[in-house]
Amino acid sequence: MKKVLAYIALSTLAAAFLIPAKYVIANEENNSLPHVEGNYQFPQTRWSRVRHTLRVHVPKNSKDVSQLNIEVPSTVKWSNDTNDVVVNKENGQKINASVSLNGNTILLAFPEPVAPNTKLEIDIKNVKQPFLGNGPVYYLSVNLVGSDAKIPIGVARFRVSL
């Protein structure tokens, strides 16, 4: 009986180490459309004023991006100052973008279209987050060079910290 239990324990440990934790790994470099890669908030506490950062990836098989649209949720209040929206590449290099507002939508127009294989970080500063209810959800879309269509690329959800 002890041999059987030892064998089961050893088999379980071996299986735990041999079975990979990730069953499917998506190769996002093969995508042909930009997508929301992530988001974060600073500070991650329950402060009333925070910075929301949205990360967007333009994969190598995508067309150039001429405009990025960010729908700000109605539950979020911010300064509505276009200087509070900053666009950088992943390495911290600032990207020239014309920032304008259309109701609850932030429009980022790029004089020089964003080339494929680029990761963007968009900071929205002086965000007053809600204290109760669900966290804010931003909807993002892009316009690609040579197309007038607005293409949805994903959402960014923020949690309301307690």
Give the strand tally. Answer: 10
What is the CATH first-level class name? Answer: Mainly Beta
Dominant shape: extended
Helix-strand sequence: HEEEEEEEEEE
Number of continuous helical runs: 1
What is the total domain count? 1
pLDDT below 50 for ≥5 consecutive residues: which ranges? 20-28
Show the helix and strand layout.
Blueprint: H1 2-18, E1 35-42, E2 49-58, E3 65-71, E4 77-78, E5 85-89, E6 98-102, E7 105-114, E8 118-128, E9 137-144, E10 150-157
Antiparallel strand pairs: 1-2, 2-8, 3-7, 3-9, 4-8, 5-8, 6-7, 9-10
How would you describe this structure to a colleague?
- There is one protein chain.
- The protein is mostly beta strands.
- It has a single domain, classed as Immunoglobulin-like (Sandwich), CATH 2.60.40.740.
- It has 1 helix and 10 strands.
- It has one helix spanning 2-18, and strands at residues 35-42, 49-58, 65-71, 77-78, 85-89, 98-102, 105-114, 118-128, 137-144, 150-157.
- The strands form 2 sheets. Strands 1, 2, 4, 5 and 8 form a 5-stranded antiparallel sheet that branches.
- Strand 6 (98-102) and strand 7 form a beta hairpin.
- The longest helix is centred in the N-terminal third of the chain and has 17 residues, at 2-18.
- The radius of gyration is 21 Å and the shape is extended.
- The model is unreliable at 20-28 (pLDDT under 50).
Task: Give keywords.
Immunoglobulin-like, extended, single chain, mainly beta, 162 residues, 5-stranded antiparallel beta sheet
